[in-house]
Amino acid sequence: MKILCATTSKPKIEFFKNLISDLDVEVVSPKDLNISLSVVEDGKTAQENALIKAMAYHKATGLATIAMDSALYLSEYNESDSIQPGLRVRRPYNTAVELSDDEMIEYYSKLAHSHGGRLSAYYIDGFAIVDETGTKFTFRDYNYPKNIFYLVDKPHFRREVGNPLDTISVNRINGKYYYDQTEEDIKKNKELSTRKQIHEEGMQRLKEFIQRSLYGEKND
Hints:
alpha/beta, 220 residues, globular, 7 strands, 7-stranded mixed β-sheet
């Protein structure tokens, strides 16, 4: 079975490929199919935006399609505050123009600087699948806790295309950039070990959601 990943983001495509690498599923990208769509993401939640993208690409190709979207929240601001990114992670000014990776790093690091050098942040991710028949499925792991981290004003030297905010993301537990985090750090810190376990359990639930959506498999 082929499943189309409704994104041009290489990190997201690799994420899904790695997550379901042991399933009998071939993950393909819009680039693989030589298609390019402009999708208006006007949903109110990450799940709604993910479903909008999945539906658009499914209608264009007839393939089972998976999509995700993320909302970024800053604890220093109320959810209704105009500065709160929410679903507008790349459009924090509420404009139609998306920021480039470099512009995102500059914007959020300056915002962190205005708060003494760091902001408390967390993501809410939403996922959607449209199967080959057009049946819709959405997922958000509500049991997954708010994994708060810091956005800081001093960028790390490492950068990964498509994931610009990783460059200014710091673990709030040990104060290290995520790029500098090691397995030894996790083993030595009980809270970090617990966080890793919670994350792995969340990824397993997401994988089971994909299985159920595509194959109707039940996981109690």
